[in-house]
Amino acid sequence: GVGQLARFQSASPAHNGCGSMGTPDNPEFQTAPALAYAHVANTASAPPYPGLWGNTAVSGVFYQGALYPGVYRQQFFFGDYGQNWVRVGTIDAANNLVSVSDFGSTMGTPVCFTSDPVTGDVLYISIITGEVMRIRYTATVGNSAPNVSAVGAPSFGAVPLDVVFSSAGTMDPDGDPVTLSWSFGDGSGSSLANPTHTYSAIGTFTAVLTATDGRGGVGRDTVVVVTTAASNFPITSVLDNFNRDDGPIGGAWAVDKAGLVIKSKTLRETALDNWAVWSGASFGADQEAYVTLKSLTLTALEHDLILKAQGLVLDQGYIEVRYDHVQKAVLVTTSAPSQGRVARGAALPAAFVNGDRLGARALANGTVEVYRNTGLIGTRSVAGWPFASGGGRVGLKLLGANSSTMDNFGGGDVTVGPNTPPTIAITSPLARAFFVAGQNVTLACTASDAQDGASRLTYHWDVELHHNTHFHFGGTFETAGASFVADNHDDGTGVFYRIRLTVRDTGGLSSRDSVDIFPEIDLTPRAAVFTPAAPTASDGITATFRVRNLGRLPSNLSRWRVRAGATLLAEGDVIVPARDSVLVTVPLPTPLAAGTYAVRVVVDTLGQVTETNEANNAAMSTLIVSASVLPFQNTAVLDNFNRGNGALGANWLNA
To answer: Residue 129 contacts by C-beta under 8 Å, 6 or more apart in sequence?
Structure first.
């Protein structure tokens, strides 16, 4: 409370009683509570709020979400366990309590307040009922928030991981139309009902599906996606896809009983406990096996892979990699006549879902790697098992999985060693090739990998249309070959396509290649002609020439120059349309000394345009400039003969 209680003041604890406050040994003084209330209704609280009383104060949580009305945002929800209420304290910017308002009076013994990390909703525990309660805002009285169902598969795997999400089952109890939005937990999202998203980073991501009903009702559901480092699992082929008529398992299998059958192109169990060993081949000391768990029996104790079986019957020894769907864990065990059954390390936590692939790799050094899809769950050692360094057969074992369906069983020998990246090259288009608008540009490559076949590699193309100082995405493709239609996007600032290819192997290593292709442009000038045609050194001279573009796409802005030897006479910039020309008329410097000039017109002097023919960018002509001619009558008149008739005169010698 706010006051001192005598029975506390007079108490004499062994150390640091109330009298020690403010001393060097206990320098702090007590802090008054922001709010205090009594156990009885007729005692005022401090500060006084009418009707505020209770039995057990329970500290709460600040609401930091955006779904509640504004009056509740950034405010403090707290409760009283004894009186079953929840109230809201309004806190100012200086963290002072401004007011307390009623919120709920029959809240069910609230304790342990916290916030939903996704929605921000206030959560608490009703300790008497043993329930987690959520305070959710639905805006309209009588309106129900949508019921949301979100699923995603696969939810575990190595990067890059493509997850297919579904909102099937999402609906509004009131029949209101719902608007859907996905947040994938990695900064991206989608408004599609059933999007596919690629996770490129390693980590744990919470994908959130939000449904709104337009009346303030909001519902959410989440899918947790776990991504791991890329692996090269599996690297072997499918041995049996079970795509045959219904009946006994048949094929290259040795079985202990007839409880394994083909039904609807999948493998199923009809008896309680069954196993089958692949009789088609025995594999070496480094081997792997895998199977797709198309659907899982909730109560099944065993969906097992068998590795290094020492014969076609299991009593001769084998490694068992068991997925227990009840315990949500994978356990590695071995069996040998001399040892019996031995658990090899603790169980590996793993929650497989329908469509996941269970895989394992047993190596000659005794290591057993366990995989969910392409992601490594963990490893266990079977060192000490008599057959650890040898080979054997692979197979399957089921227990109590009568409603499970299995598909695409595979396995075989693996090569253990350092992984190396693929060797790749883009073969189409060629580097510095040329395109025209509307052309179908083919993308093709060669790719090989020392550990993986070409069919096991993943391909990613990025097509970028570079324009001025930025670029536009021209498409992405996830196949070894593809094509796109080229565009004419030039506005005089220049364009080209940059085509990038990334090829990744199953071990996570990648190689990259890229090529640039350019618009079909060919600039060439005509030789300059001059006005006047026979100039003198005192004349103003004009040069006229054409810049032609022989290509089928317009050129970007480029520089031309007129030179006489090393002397620059004129320069400028020009844009030339496709298969057209531009007439350039430019005055030359005045005066131009008398002489004979070899005048060279050069286009694209700054190399701004990549051309189909770079050898025709200049044209020559000759300019002859004559010396200036003085006027003929340039002296004074000696005799104008303006005198009377008679002799020529004294200034003349006349024989």
So the answer is: 108, 109
Two structure tokens written together for 326:
């009840």
pLDDT of residue 632: 62
Each residue's pLDDT tens digit, 279-309: 999 999 999 999 999 999 888 889 999 999 9
Residue 129 confidence (pLDDT) above 70: yes
Residues 493-532 pLDDT 10s: 889 999 999 998 877 789 999 999 999 999 999 999 999 9
- Stretch 191-214: mean pLDDT, rounded? 91
Three-state DSSP class for 315? helix
10 Å CB burial of residue 319 (0-12, 13-18, 19+) is: buried
CA distance 539 to 531: 9
Q: Are 501 and 461 within 8 A, CB to CB? A: yes
Nearest to 517 by CA among 432, 415, 393, 583: 432
Strand-pair partners of 360: 289, 370
Q: What is the pLDDT of residue 649?
A: 81
Q: Residue 367 is encoded by which pair of tokens?
A: 């290591």
- Counting beta carbons within 10 angstroms of the beta carbon of residue 629, is it exposed (0 to 12), middle (13 to 18) or buried (19 or more)? exposed
In the predicted model, is pLDDT for residue 437 greater than 90?
yes
Q: How far apart are CA 299 and CA 296, in angstroms?
A: 9
Q: What is the DSSP string of 251-292?
A: SSEEESSTTEEEETTEEEE-SSEEEEEE-S--B-SSEEEEEE
The span from the CA of 596 to the CA of 587, in Å, is 18
